[in-house]
Amino acid sequence: MSNAIQQIVDVYVRLNNRRGLEDLMMHRQRLAVDLKARTGFDFSLPISQIDEEIAVIEAGLASLRRAHGP
Fold first, then answer.
1. What's the CA gap between 61 and 45, in Å, rounded?
2. Which residues are CB-contacts of 22 (< 8 A; sequence separation ≥ 6)?
3. What is the C-alpha to C-alpha distance for residues 9 and 58, in angstroms, rounded to an integer?
4. In terms of Cα–Cα distance, which of 52, 61, 55 is closest to 22?
5. Is 9 left (phi over 0), alpha (psi -120 to 50) or beta?
6. 17: phi > 0 → left, psi -120 to 50 → alpha, else beta; which?
7. CB-based contacts of 57, cutoff 8 Å, min separation 6
8. How far, in Å, CA of 43 to CA of 61, rounded?
9. How many other C-beta atoms are found inside a 10 Å radius of the C-beta of residue 21?
10. Is-contact 67 35, C-beta < 8 A?
11. What domain of life is recorded for the organism (predicted)?
């Protein structure tokens, strides 16, 4: 999954689509919050994957900031 999200982020960065990356980030953050609030099952693996995806998206946003300013 990380490879897929990396490719998506790379396209957003190449297209200078900060809004798309921010929307993707908000979606992943909502998923993480939802999964962390659930009980009765071990959600540690999907939470870990989502956290990795968030890190990739953050790196993409940082790349855009460096290239184009805030």
1. 25
2. 61
3. 9
4. 61
5. alpha
6. beta
7. 5, 9, 21, 24, 25, 28
8. 27
9. 21
10. no
11. Bacteria
Q: What is the pLDDT of residues 1-59, one digit of tens each?
A: 568 999 999 999 999 999 999 999 999 999 999 999 998 899 999 999 999 999 999 99
CA separation (Å) from 60 to 34, 36, 37, 39?
24, 24, 27, 32
Question: Per-residue pLDDT for 62 more than 90?
Answer: yes
Q: The tokens of 56 are what?
A: 């990739």
Q: What is the pTM of this model?
A: 0.88
